[in-house]
Design goal:
This protein has five helices and 27 strands. It has helices spanning 20-30, 34-48, 55-70, 79-88, 401-406; strands at residues 2-4, 90-92, 99-107, 119-128, 134-143, 149-151, 159-160, 162-163, 172-175, 185-187, 198-207, 213-222, 227-234, 239-244, 256-257, 266-271, 277-282, 292-295, 305-308, 313-314, 319-326, 332-339, 347-350, 371-372, 377-379, 382-389, 393-400. Strands 3, 4, 5, 6, 7 and 10 form a six-stranded mixed sheet that branches. Strands 8-9-14-13-12-11 form a six-stranded antiparallel sheet, with no helix packed on it. Strands 19, 20, 21, 22 and 23 form a five-stranded antiparallel sheet that branches. Strand 8 and strand 9 (172-175) form a beta hairpin. The protein is elongated. The N and C termini lie far apart (48 Å).
């Protein structure tokens, strides 16, 4: 796919009146005659037009971004000059060249036209490309009543969601390109706090209690120096709000929201000490403090640390929470606990052995000895569980919920 190419910051001692390297590049293109510019653009198109979707519109949008940044008047320029300038500030990027991992899953926004018992879903994925930069991608599909999985085809081209205005920091409103499906949309970092990656989105289909549902997702923003939890909000997977959060608790990873309020307040499960799970509540979805320890490492396969794998799933018996455990040789496994329905601070059941663990057949990859998920989906009497394998592929499991609960002690 094509994404913006950002130049390195200019030295602090540069002429303050200079427009820097970006200004020099723009000036060089503007100095080209119409014929020379057309030849250069034709050469770029010969290399890339057949490899990507709507290169002309991508170049023109990037041109507008750069003119706004440089404060230049572009009204008198030819389309060829505009496109070529835009191309100089784009680059081809393989967003999943290094790794694909950590899926999360929620019901689709559109459940129309399905057979009884079928369920349409949206799967989110963490993809990693050049520079170990993590982005968010999606796949859509259908689960039939009898558990048959149909993944919709991956589109031949993908496009990045675009912010409504330049944002070096703070909150972002990003739009899905109208010409691509949800499965063809990629969300890249926008702000300085996110610049090295948007990691491990954990989606939640949240019941507002008034007949409305909103998709909330917590993810880790990585700047290259530090991390913080941030919030993604969408109602339709067309408009995405990426919002910062405040409070001491957001400085940690592995958060997941309950799918409805608990006793009138928002509730999350997250790690606060790098090794254990805590229960937190707040009246403000964007501000979190404190927390109560509910689940420290207990078994040998999770002695290094335990963490949250997804949004708690509401059952008649309680809240089913998938966990991950890290054991010897940094081996990651998936476990499960049952929390009290009225007071989720109470653990009323737990698997003594992992639900899923790396095996000889699936231990090799970008990060070996890891199985990991960021969320599962209740489907009838079963749990549909997508999970990453060695950060190199995604597999799927169907788990009978009654059998799973019967194994807990």
């Amino acid at each position: 796919m094509i994404r913006p190419f950002h130049l390195a910051p200019e030295p602090r001692d540069r002429n303050p009146n200079s427009k820097g390297r970006a200004g020099r590049i723009v000036g060089a293109v503007l100095a080209m005659s119409e014929e020379e510019c057309a030849r250069e653009l034709a050469s770029v198109d010969a290399d890339f037009a057949s490899r990507h979707w709507q290169t002309e519109s991508v170049y023109l949008r990037r041109f507008e971004h750069m003119m706004t940044q440089l404060g230049e008047d572009s009204s008198a320029l030819s389309d060829a000059h505009k496109e070529l300038i835009g191309a100089y500030f784009c680059h081809e990027y393989s967003y999943a060249a290094a790794a694909i991992m950590n899926p999360s899953i929620v019901p689709h926004t559109d459940q129309s036209g399905l057979k009884p018992g079928d369920q349409r879903f949206i799967l989110s994925l963490r993809t990693v490309g050049e520079g170990h930069i993590s982005s968010i991608t999606f796949r859509e599909g259908i689960l039939s009543a009898d558990g048959e999985l149909t993944l919709w085809p991956q589109p031949p081209f993908s496009l990045a969601a675009e912010s409504t205005e330049p944002v070096p920091m703070g909150d972002v409103i990003a739009l899905r390109p109208a010409s691509v499906s949800i499965s063809g949309t990629v969300i890249f970092p926008f702000t300085s706090e996110q610049r090295n990656g948007l990691e491990d989105l954990r989606l939640c289909y949240f019941d507002e209690g008034d007949g409305r549902h909103i998709y909330y997702g917590t993810y880790t923003a990585y700047s290259g120096l530090g991390i913080q939890s941030e919030l993604m909000i969408t109602e339709d997977f067309n408009t995405f709000r990426l919002e910062t959060m405040s409070g001491e608790a957001v400085k940690h990873k592995a958060w997941r929201s309950f799918p409805r309020r608990i006793n009138g307040a928002y509730a999350v499960i997250g790690r606060q000490d790098n090794e254990s799970l805590f229960f937190m509540q707040s009246d403000n979805l964007k501000h979190w403090e404190g927390g109560e320890l509910i689940l420290p490492p207990k078994y040998s396969w999770e002695l290094v640390q335990t963490g949250n794998c997804g949004s708690p799933i509401e059952l008649d018996e309680g809240w089913l929470l998938l966990t991950h455990g890290v054991g010897a040789m940094r081996k990651y496994s998936i476990g499960a606990v049952l929390l009290d329905k009225n007071d989720p601070r109470k653990v009323i059941g737990q698997l003594a052995k992992p639900l899923l663990s790396p095996s000889t057949e699936n231990r090799e990859g970008y990060v070996p000895n890891v199985v990991y998920t960021c969320g599962a989906l209740k489907h009838g009497k079963s749990l549909f569980l997508p999970y990453g394998v060695a950060d190199s592929s995604v597999a799927f499991a169907m788990v009978d919920i009654a059998s799973l609960l019967s194994e807990m002690s």
